[in-house]
Write a structure and sequence with these properties.
The chain is α+β, with helices and mostly antiparallel strands. It folds into four domains: 102 residues, PAS domain (Beta-Lactamase); 176 residues, GAF domain (Beta-Lactamase, 2-Layer Sandwich), CATH 3.30.450.40; 80 residues; 168 residues, Heat Shock Protein 90 (2-Layer Sandwich). The protein has 15 helices and 18 strands. A five-stranded antiparallel beta sheet has the order 2-1-5-4-3, with helices on both faces. Strands 7-6-10-9-8 form a five-stranded antiparallel beta sheet. Strands 12-14-15-17-16 form a five-stranded mixed beta sheet. Helix 7 runs antiparallel to helix 10 and helix 12 packs parallel to helix 13. The radius of gyration is 40 Å and the shape is elongated. The chain binds adenosine-5'-diphosphate (ADP). Adenosine-5'-diphosphate (ADP) binds next to helix 13 and helix 14.
């Protein structure tokens, strides 16, 4: 029961208190100086009852003396019980206290006013009403009574709520929120719009299994903030089976499934029994259609009472599924884009390494073949009876020669690489790093890596080849990600930071909390073909060091002292006045 304002509890016996509509002694109350004939009073009462709203009157102290029949029909409360303050029992418990305060203020000020509150219908559902009250005064200005009228504003309230919800959801979608919270917010909006309904949204993925030509829908979890979990399909990720539940049927047929009363339903036996045991008796499952016309999800509403949707409710469902389709399409496009980005990154990396590997393989192959031939000749000579020691010595010498030749090849290749022409321009390392990070976000997300960028303000620019420097940053970040791949006992943190050091050099550090390395191996990390990974090439760091040294900078690694993992840092000279004075973009070939 709502709290009652103290003033509303008092019944005064002033003339004003009785000069109201419905008071038979004073006929109309509006013109109480005139004695109205009975017929007029009856027709006035019929008129008041015919008004498409609730009409009431109250004494100057707020004691309600009259309510029309419509009010009684709506609330299911007898008029005799509603008189005085009995009407307050129909108010929504959340609205009653504030309305009592507001009504008390009106009575005190004597001003007309209006208030929005929910009134309970005879069947227990609440609808919003605009409650208006106007004082009736005598010539001296004293209040004789209050007249009131309540108008049903449920549709307007719902439209407002839907609009506000829609705006909130669209800004979440535009702001790049994750799909689950968006769908959860949408479910809550649907639940608020469908009194007491429980909403869930599942995702539907269409897969083309070989050799079937028709795509098979698979249901995946979406959002179901209040629906019992044993009623939500999709946890197993198996192909949707229409006989399992209405949601699956809607996914398979791409058509709305309306079950007005589960008690009279013979399909979906297990699911139906579970739904009824939860006190849920109706289900409306509607496909969410993506822009290409395929089903991308199902929006399901479960109801406690048997019911079928009205036209207005069907329109509302259409609006909500449209919102869901925007959210799902957007998330899927983002995911596809992220995947393509990261594949491109890998492709670029692999392609450049691939080209290098091919040339290395070609160059190294010859001395390698020589080494093998010489080594087996050597063995044969030593195994002969008597052993041909002089010949074996000669072939062993040739083996060493070929080994040196192979190593020369590698050195030559590295030198070749560092002689590659580079494009010099002024580079903002913060910006270059941000671009690399943007490209790698999907990769980091997939690996569960938390990124902490810490870019220094007013970082001086450097002179260099932007693309090559970005290759170094990319390599350091991918290495750090790989170094954290096996970590499961702690969360994976990657810090990319920049600063200008005391020697006016621009530094970039990539710090991870991965496996780290043995400090004794620190120099080996930068030698070509040193790798600890089963599928590693071992040339990323050696190439990176060549690039940085080519830019007159240095690249080094340290084991973190204050925690697990490693830090890789490069420092480059900042751009100078003379750099700036020259051409901003030049191509330089080192001798
Ligand atoms: P690859 O990644 O193909 O192994 P790299 O030259 O990039 O080649 O790296 C050489 C080796 O350096 C790696 O195999 C790894 O052992 C070590 N390393 C590189 N980055 C890290 C890191 N962030 N933490 C620990 N070890 C690292």
């Amino acid at each position: 029961m709502p709290r009652r304002h103290p003033r509303m509890m008092v019944r005064r016996s002033s003339p004003g208190a009785s000069s109201t509509i419905g008071d038979s002694e004073n006929t109309t109350g509006m013109h109480n100086e005139i004695e109205r004939p009975r017929a007029t009073e009856d027709s006035l009462r019929s008129l008041i009852d015919a008004v498409p709203g609730f009409v009431w009157s109250a004494a100057p102290d707020g004691y309600v003396t009259f309510l029309n029949q419509r009010w009684a029909d709506y609330t299911g409360v007898q008029l005799c019980d509603a008189q005085g303050f009995g009407w307050t029992q129909s108010l929504h418990p959340d609205d009653a206290p504030e309305l009592a305060v507001y009504w008390g203020q009106l009575l005190q000020s004597g001003e007309a006013g209006e208030y929005e509150a929910r009134l309970r219908r005879f069947d227990g559902t609440y609808r919003w009403f605009l409650i208006r009250a106007v004082p009736q005064r005598d010539e001296s200005g004293a209040i004789l009574c209050w007249y009131g009228e309540n108008t049903d504003i449920e549709d307007r309230k719902r439209a407002e709520m839907l609009l506000a919800g829609e705006k909130r959801l669209l800004s979440m979608i535009a702001g790049g929120s994750a799909l689950t919270p968006i769908l959860e917010a949408l479910c809550e909006l649907v639940e608020a719009s469908f009194n007491g309904g429980l909403c869930s949204i599942v995702l539907v993925d269409l897969k083309h299994p070989y050799p079937a030509s028709e795509p098979v829908p698979r249901i995946q979890p979406g959002a179901a903030p209040h629906v019992p979990l044993d009623l939500v399909p999709g946890a197993d990720g198996r192909p949707a089976d229409a006989v399992l539940c209405p949601v699956a049927m809607a996914a398979v047929t791409n058509e709305q499934v309306i079950v007005g009363d589960l008690n009279h339903e013979t399909r979906w036996n297990g699911w139906r029994t579970r739904a009824l045991s939860h006190g849920l008796q109706a289900n409306w499952s509607t496909p969410v259609t993506s822009t290409n016309g395929t089903v991308s999800g199902i929006l399901s509403i479960l109801h406690r009472e048997p019911q079928t949707p009205s036209t207005a409710q069907r329109n509302l469902i259409a609006q909500c599924t449209h919102l869901a389709s925007i959210a799902i399409d957007r998330a899927r496009n983002e995911a596809a884009l992220g995947k393509i980005r990261s594949e491109l990154t890998h492709l670029a990396r692999v392609a450049s390494l691939g080209a290098l590997t091919a040339s290395i393989a070609h160059e190294v192959n010859q001395p390698l073949a020589g080494i093998i031939t010489n080594a087996s000749t050597c063995l044969r000579m030593l195994g002969a009876d008597p052993p041909n020691v002089a010949g074996a010595l000669e072939t062993a010498r040739r083996t060493i020669r070929d080994g040196n030749r192979a190593s020369d090849v590698i050195n030559r290749l590295r030198a070749l690489f560092s002689k590659k022409s580079i494009t010099l321009e002024s580079v903002d390392i913060n910006e270059a790093a941000r671009e690399v990070i943007a490209m790698l976000l999907g990769e980091l997300q997939r690996n569960g890596v938390m990124l902490h960028p810490e870019f220094a303000d007013n970082l001086p620019q450097v002179m260099g080849d932007r693309v090559q420097l970005q290759q170094v940053i990319l390599n350091l970040i991918l290495n750090a990600t790989e170094a954290m791949n096996t970590i499961s006992s702690r969360s994976r943190h990657l810090q990319v930071s920049t600063h200008a050091d005391d020697n006016d050099r621009v530094c970039l550090t990539v710090r991870d909390n991965g496996n780290g390395f043995d400090p004794q191996d620190v120099q080996r990390l930068f030698t070509a073909f040193y790798t600890t990974k089963s599928s590693g090439m071992g040339i990323g760091l050696s190439v990176s060091r060549s690039i940085i040294e080519r830019h007159e900078g240095s690249l080094w690694a340290t084991v973190n002292e204050d925690g697990p993992g490693a830090s890789f840092r490069f420092a480059l000279p900042r751009i100078t006045q003379s750099d700036n004075a020259g051409e901003s973009v030049t191509t330089q070939e080192t001798p």
